[in-house]
From TrEMBL:
The keyword NADP applies. Keywords: ATP-binding, Isomerase, Lyase, Metal-binding, Multifunctional enzyme, NAD, NADP, Nucleotide-binding, Potassium. This is Bifunctional NAD(P)H-hydrate repair enzyme. Residues 238-497 form the YjeF C-terminal domain. It catalyses: (6S)-NADHX + ADP = AMP + phosphate + NADH + H(+); (6R)-NADHX = (6S)-NADHX; (6R)-NADPHX = (6S)-NADPHX; (6S)-NADPHX + ADP = AMP + phosphate + NADPH + H(+). Pfam families: Carb_kinase, YjeF_N. InterPro entries: CARKD, Nnr, Ribokinase-like, YjeF_N_dom, YjeF_N_dom_sf. Its EC number is 4.2.1.136, 5.1.99.6. It comes from Leptospira wolbachii serovar Codice str. CDC. CDD domains: YXKO-related.
Amino acid sequence: MKQKPLFTNKESKALDSLATKELGFHEQTLMGMAALSVFHANEDLWKTAESIWILSGSGGNGGDGYALAHTLFQEGYSVRCFATSPNKNEAGKFYEALVSKTIGAIGSVDDFYETWEEAEEDSVLLVDALLGTGFQNPLSEELTELIDTINESDVFFYRLSLDTASGWNPYLLGEKDSKAHSFVFADSIEELGTRKWENIGFIYEKDSIIPRYYESIGFPVRSHLNNVTFSKRYYLEADPENAIAIIKRKNKDHKYSAGSALFYGGAEGMEGAILLSEQAFSRLGGGISKISSPSLKISSLILKEDLSKMAKTSSLAETLEDPFLKKTKTIVVGPGLTQYPNDLSGWEVPEDFRLVLDAGAIPTKGSALPKGNQILLTPHVGELNRMTGITHHSVQAAYDTLVDFCPKNNVYVLLKSFVSLLVCPDGSSYVWESPNPKLATMGTGDLLSGILARYLSLDLSIPEAVHLALSLLDHSKQLEEPYPSAHQILKSLVEII
């Protein structure tokens, strides 16, 4: 899989300590490397600014700001520096002094306000170096006012944050105190040295995740990937070409080697959900499949559409005794069901079987889960809240719940949202951050369960199947139709492969 490690604030600090104390890096050198990385990554952006203002805090993040200011000034850009207070970081003090000697006096917060009042609209590019990733305390009134001014001002045509947007704390989302939500509305974030877990899902506009760019500065990232110092959180990158290549049938395939699956769902009046899930499986190359449903209409609906299909009206208990089950290793339960089937409670899933629970098969809190080694639950946020009895306002909060829930119940959970999160029984987790508004329509969850079944039927692991399924669905972004139906999305995926 294409994956990149994500580090928590605590892990990033430990990595910084490893670099400076054990490997002998000078913090001053790392700070300079960070500044150079940001400078070169944004050379086209700097050229658009009449003036660049850098607002620094008293810690290492502020030191990064001073180091960047020094580089920009030496390269001929118009730079002004303002600070909330003198820098306390030893490397930061060096660059603060360097800026004072070369650029001139560093302005205070009062100086910032005075200069801001006289500035013209859209004339300033602001670099936010106020607060680093380690800042967890409530904002002071002074900082809250400063950040609110930055956000509301029409002077700044662009806001670039170093490492994280100052004041951003995903764990405060949903808190009643409005002051907890004051953070810089960055247009982009430059992550320095490590990709930051706490930055995942940074969003202040309803339909857009703010872009983050990772800048390598020589941190010993690979030296830090062990079970003691790393919590096995990864960022998934799209792999669209591989998603297509793997799903295509091979010339030597027969109906079972091409993939087989059993689908159960579709209560009376909701048969379309399980039909769509099975269609995704079969039309994307699955060799053989069967639908079982509590609906009395299921056979007539399916055979009316395709005489080659297999369908049966039955209870889940009867379905689990179906001889077809012995010929397949992939089962999807839930699309089109209205409640959690009691027959799932405590069911011993046969060894090597892959069970996907979706929609109506997502349990409520207290329901007994089936038992097996490859069980995947695919809730959306509301279903996750119902399943755990906890309300979640961020992907980080969902992780905190699931990192206990998944090992305890020996299940994988894929949270479906604008940021998708897969948490595994072994404690590892994977984040998919690729918002796709075209998937915000009825039926796309059923579609995903069928695509997951397609990849799982090829004996892929659950993390691999999730990665490839999400990568394949990402192709729907290319559809010209602004609000495609789930059937239109499926049709486009079929055409691609």
